[in-house]
Design a protein that fits this description.
17 helices; mainly alpha; globular
Amino acid sequence: MREDFFSTIVEIIKYGGSTFAALVAMSIYTTTDGFFIGNWVGTEGLEAMALVYPVTMIFMALGTLFETGGSAVVAQVIGENKKPLAEKIMRSNYVCAFVIGIIVAVVGNIFIEQLLMFLSDNPDEQHIIDLAISFLRISFCGLPFLLTVYLTGAFMRCIDKPSHVFYLVGSTSLANIILDALFIIVFGWGMQGAAFATVLAQFLGTTTSFWYFKYSRQKFSTSWSLSSLDYIWQEVKIGGGFAISTLMMCFIEYFLNATLLRYDAAHLLAAATIANIVLTLVYLPLTGLDTGIQPLISRLFAAKKEHHYLRVMRYGFFLTMVLSFVIYVVLMIFTEEMMRFFIVENEPITEEMIIFLRTMFLLQPFVGLHMWLSGIMAALEDEWRNVVISLLPLVVQVPLIWFLPKYLPIEFVGLNYSANDLAEAAVAFLLIHSFLRSKNLSFNKIFFERR
């Protein structure tokens, strides 16, 4: 039994650990812009980033859609020893992702000004909105490249090269850090410099992706094809829940920003940006752990190796929850210190800002439980339960964002996130209970059955 424990942990680290490391690198990638903007552009730059964040969630939604659905389908096909079909599905993914990325980039550049101007008609806030618009017009151009990087990371895991995900994302992140320093500090380009750095780093990641499958020792061709579109639709159904959940976050952030501006709390926009960056640091590593082992579970399930995938599920849960609690303790204890990392010393950090962040982090451990449950549903190709969970923020967060400021100080509006964390975990638990029964599984079987 001890041998099974250690061998399974090693296996999880091999698949989930490399993706975990890759998404830590990606979260550093996200943090880099906030660090350079906060320290060299100032608080106004952070406030503008709060307006930018909902739009970048659309980018993440598209990336998550292709990454989650694509990895589940391709891993299952490879597990069935159908490598030529897996190649066709991968090529179709790249074509669809690149085309969709271009379409969204064009549409976004057309309507972004109207979208952000709708937030506020206060002349005092116009400069913040202008900064956000200048950043997004450039950032949209990198979307096709970003989706390519997402897909390549997913497929590297599927072909049993999870460690290569770290090299891909790590090199992209390093390029972003170097370019941010060059464009913001040396050239003084401010918000636009951060956007240019991001797009160029994503282009580098796309170039690396093309080289990897075209010229490395991997045998997967990059000939472009529109075949296997029925599998693309299957991926959309599998990854749709995660994508919709991310889009819900986009809408929630947009509504929250509008509420803060309506209650004359524009100073909390900077805190919201820091919270978003910190929560990205939280969510991406957790997502990396659970997303990383999804192809492993899918492959083992397709191969009918029950005891093996049960062990992966069981130990994946314990690793996820330990990581969740460690992150939670750090967030609650070092809140002010984290804020000071992004705000220069001559600008104040108010008690309101600290309360706002801590109310957002209050029930964060439930995020880990929700992610583990959703990851199992995605790995076993559930098609609708994750979609139901993804709609919860509309029911929970939107009413609370509207209701809380009427009866509590505006800084307590962050409680809407904590309430949603608890609701998502509870609903996911109830839904997956029936889902597991349909697969002849149960929580009792996952946690207590031994071979």
